[in-house]
Specification:
There is one protein chain. This protein has about 220 residues and is of the alpha/beta class. The chain has a single domain, classed as Alpha-Beta Barrel (TIM Barrel). The chain has 8 helices and 8 strands, in the order αβαβαββαβαβαβαβα. It has an 8-stranded parallel sheet with strand order 7-6-5-4-3-2-1-8. Helix 6 packs across helix 7. The protein is globular. The structure holds pyridoxal-5'-phosphate. The site of pyridoxal-5'-phosphate (PLP) has 14 residues, from strand 8 and helix 8. The site of pyridoxal-5'-phosphate has 14 residues, from strand 8 and helix 8.
Length: about 220
């Protein structure tokens, strides 16, 4: 099933999105066994993303084939230390204090860390992230921190069937990303799109999709 799902995704997701960019699939692996993750990697999944630091640590050495490791979930400041030097990209930097901690720990460890700023594009009370109108100022501030590079933006769209709304919000994300990309050469990734909305996100210019259910099937939370 995992192999079949990935094959279909690789077929359906064109190598180039409407914006002419390479599209990266990050497998959202929360609650998946190392065995399932390894199957996906063998079937061609190059990038995987964790939500929980404990899961990330428990499974770290069980993952075969050296996929790039992303962190995509809400991250507590006191757990950053466990991820330093092992994470290709932190997607969910949703506050300045978190960026400061990643910077400090990276500097101490002698590594550079790549991050995305999370944007609360739907202005939802239940979600973290910078407000769209705050992004540029936050970028300027965070860019000054050592051992850190901002590589782009990340968003989670609201849970709704309203495709017009989803398209508008995803389009606004691309516009914000493009605005900063014109003067910041580090900007490379726009991470948005989950199993329910990735087609809309791809159409609007996402170039990094975080997919769980449509690769692994429904999660078993036990
Ligand atoms: C779980 C998760 C995903 C993937 O969700 P699916 O709907 O299963 O594709 C993407 N992004 C984040 C931050 C997640 O926690």
């Amino acid at each position: 099933m995992i192999e079949e799902n990935l094959k279909n995704l690789f077929k359906e997701i064109p190598e180039y999105n409407p914006f002419g960019e390479k599209v990266t699939i990050v497998g959202a692996v929360k609650f998946q066994t190392a065995e399932s993750i390894n199957r996906a990697v063998r079937a061609g999944l190059t990038d995987i993303g964790d939500n929980h630091v404990q899961e990330f640590r428990e499974k770290f050495d069980l993952i075969e084939g050296s996929p790039r490791r992303h962190f995509i979930g809400h991250l507590q400041t006191n757990k950053v230390k466990y991820l330093i030097g092992k994470t290709y990209l932190y997607h969910s930097v949703d506050r300045t204090g978190l960026a400061e901690e990643i910077s400090k720990r990276s500097l101490n460890a002698g590594v550079e860390s790549d991050i995305l700023l999370q944007v609360n594009i739907g202005s939802e009370l239940s979600k973290g992230g910078f407000a769209p109108e705050e992004i540029e100022r936050a970028c300027e501030q965070i860019k000054k921190l050592p051992a850190l590079r901002i590589r782009g933006l990340m968003a989670m769209l609201p849970l709704t069937d309203d495709e017009a709304l989803l398209g508008a919000l995803a389009g606004r994300m691309r516009a914000e990303y493009d605005k900063i990309k014109t003067y910041d050469e580090n900007f490379t990734y726009l991470s948005m799109g989950m199993s329910g909305d990735w087609r809309i996100c791809l159409q609007e210019g996402a170039n990094m999709l975080r997919l769980g259910t449509c690769i692994f099937g429904h999660r078993n939370y036990n």
